């Protein structure tokens, strides 16, 4: 009777587990939580698309693209976003499976006696792994933690993609404006060469001076061609992020590079914020916590092997039937789980080491990005407030002197080239400033550049 009561209790516990082990898929596969994570960090993540095919490029690129629209288009149509949502589905499936018991096993055996006229001996059995039931709470908890990690990883990938799109737009717009100035410089050098050729024919310019202006014109033309090539490359990089094939579509960018804003970032405060905001850090911390929990469970159940309980019924050769519970235990004789424990300890130590390395890398990245922002602003400010006004004044005075025939036209052309050169340097400094702002946002884990909430 004692054995029967033990089995009854085991079967009762199994029945409760079967009733309580019915897990459901996470609501919307965790997408709203991902959207909340990105929204809190300044980026609006789109809902999963119903149609994975992006519209025709001509429909998407039918109006000029500014930085905000570049980000919005990228997050809506870049295949990587769809991939991140698909990974969420995989993680949701893991949560579902972890919350359910394995299916029971049905067995049947038919044994034929050698006695003439005797009936076959038939045995039926149904068994369920009791170890699954005992480990079910831990499996659910660990799977839930892994799902939270998957959500953080998906949100981090979306934030990175948004920063990539914004940086690509700044690079393209800067390249376009630099190319325009380079073309002006090439025109000025070409004008100088043309004027030099006329004066050479009149005997007022030496062959050496003509060769110098020709070389200068060639050099400026080459620089203009290089700048135009940089535009082509930058367009291709942004197109790749937009997730559409823009071949044959003459799409345009909108807006000028904004003037750099005065900024004195507090590196210590930003570092503290980054350590609390970065989703990849959050994911690594969750990983370390889950591995610590897994190690604890491994210690707790190290001697637990495959354990099944069930019910068997047997019809003997004399057609009588006997029924009773069954139990199968895996004896921990040859394998006592030491390898499993060692593996869990090593995985935890590795995760903790990687977490610490990432924390140090984040602190360094924030400080470096903060310094680049400050340096880029100082350079831009000096160019706008000192060099460009000085070059403009030189150009204006030179033009006046040329009008009064006090200076050669070559001096005016040279003054214009130097002014255009200063403007180009200012554009490059502005581009570098906004790229540094994007990198600072990336290092912090939250947007710090102008908000990109435009609609496609």
Mind explaining what this structure looks like?
- The protein is of the alpha+beta class and 456 residues long.
- The protein folds into 2 domains: 1-256 and 305-336, Outer membrane efflux proteins (OEP); 265-302 and 348-450, Outer membrane efflux proteins (OEP), CATH 1.20.1600.
- It is built from 11 helices and 4 strands; from the N terminus they run H-H-H-H-H-E-E-H-H-H-H-E-E-H-H.
- It has a 4-stranded antiparallel β-sheet.
- Helix 5 (79-98) runs antiparallel to helix 6 (130-201).
- The chain is elongated, with a radius of gyration of 36 Å.
- The relative contact order is 0.14.
- Mean pLDDT is 84; it is low at 449-456.
Please supply descriptive tags for the structure shown above.
456 residues, alpha+beta, Outer membrane efflux proteins (OEP), four-stranded antiparallel beta sheet, 11 helices, disordered C terminus
